[in-house]
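Tip: read the tokens left to right.
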């Protein structure tokens, strides 16, 4: 749906641009808040994931004493350098590397599932889970929806990526391929791992308890984290590009956009505030799981389902001109009548909207539940070692 609107307004580069064309100023504000808000909130998540992956390679860096914040500082500088990239036009190689990383991680998980047993395995049920407490069981089921929600988010970059294509309509093939691969990976890897290790698999596979494959120093653990580091590093970079570009356009619309030392330094200044914000959150929020949960609940359903559905529904009722390709063969020219939406389109739009609302509710239940219920609450810690600021959990 986003792509259809984008094809009608090829000059638009962000959700906010599309929202302004279809919904006016409120749509522009709404689109910018949810899309750029997600970019801002996911950057610290990516920083933390990169740090945890780096920590999981081998036995970690001597002298860091298991403090993930030190690993954040190590990868932060490299991540800052990646934010200086300005477009998606030359990211084919990086996309291939990211795809290969995903496939490699999937293969490693399946291999580990057949090679290693889980000591405390609890077989999964066909629906729900074996949790004895109904409240905890419901929150964990909601957690499954959260993982599904943030695992597939092509809508975030639909507008930006299609802009870089010679024929934006070809992006439909990318959406179909990415959706098919996502479902295949969930079914192939997810079902295999859960059948082998039971229902209580870690949200991030490396934190699954009772499996020797994920112990520090294990070859499989090192290989998995190496690919995870590469994939998340590329993800951080791709996430930061539209955010940095938005800041540049907002603060310096007449920026020359060359690679001279002066322009490079100026662009560094445009990207520095969001980078510092990401670095601050990655240290200040006690748990990366908590940060990711609230990022997902507050932005992902809105960007991937709710906003596109509203935008498309309103767009199909606008007065359109010179758009025969979108109207399915209608004659070009001005029209005084709103476009009539077919029943099938109404059903699809309503379904997407309802899925988004359901996803928002369940993701919110998971985010709040994993903080409110002590049994589910992750270890919470700000700082470490000699500069430990606050700590709550069994390891404090």
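Filled-in amino acids:
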């Amino acid at each position: 749906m986003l792509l259809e609107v984008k094809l009608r307004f090829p000059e638009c580069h962000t959700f906010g641009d599309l929202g302004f064309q279809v919904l006016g100023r409120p749509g522009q504000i709404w689109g910018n808040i949810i899309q750029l808000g997600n970019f801002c909130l996911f950057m610290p998540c990516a920083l933390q994931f990169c740090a945890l992956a780096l920590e999981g390679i081998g036995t970690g860096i001597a002298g860091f004493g298991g403090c993930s914040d030190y690993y954040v500082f190590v990868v932060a500088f490299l991540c800052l350098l990646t934010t200086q990239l300005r477009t998606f036009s030359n990211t084919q190689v990086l996309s291939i590397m990211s795809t290969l990383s995903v496939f490699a991680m999937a293969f490693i998980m399946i291999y580990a599932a057949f090679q290693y047993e889980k000591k405390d395995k609890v077989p999964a049920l066909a629906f729900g889970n074996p949790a004895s407490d109904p409240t905890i069981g419901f929150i964990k089921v909601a957690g499954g929806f959260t993982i599904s929600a943030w695992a597939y988010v092509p809508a975030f970059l639909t507008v930006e990526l299609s802009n870089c294509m010679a024929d934006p309509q070809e992006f439909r093939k990318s959406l179909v391929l990415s959706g098919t691969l996502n479902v295949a990976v969930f079914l192939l890897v997810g079902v295999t791992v859960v059948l082998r290790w039971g229902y209580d698999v870690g949200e991030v596979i490396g934190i699954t308890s009772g499996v020797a494959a994920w112990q520090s120093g294990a070859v499989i653990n090192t290989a998995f984290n190496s690919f995870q580091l590469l994939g998340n590093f590329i993800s951080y970079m791709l996430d930061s590009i539209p955010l940095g570009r938005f800041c540049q356009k907002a603060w310096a619309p007449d920026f020359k956009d060359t690679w001279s030392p002066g322009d490079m330094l100026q662009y560094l200044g445009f990207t520095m505030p969001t980078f510092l914000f990401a670095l601050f959150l990655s240290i200040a929020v006690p748990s990366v799981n908590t940060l990711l949960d609230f990022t997902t609940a507050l932005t992902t359903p809105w960007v991937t389902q709710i906003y596109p559905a509203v935008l498309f529904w309103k767009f199909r009722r606008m007065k359109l001109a010179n758009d025969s390709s979108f109207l399915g063969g209608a004659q070009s020219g001005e029209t005084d009548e709103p476009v009539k939406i077919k029943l099938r389109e109404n059903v699809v739009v309503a379904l997407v909207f309802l899925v988004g609302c359901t996803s928002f509710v369940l993701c919110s239940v998971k985010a709040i539940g994993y903080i409110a219920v002590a049994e589910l609450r992750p270890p919470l810690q700000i700082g470490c070692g000699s500069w430990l600021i606050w700590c709550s959990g069994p390891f404090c």
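The chain has twelve helices and two strands. Residues 2-329+336-392 form one domain.
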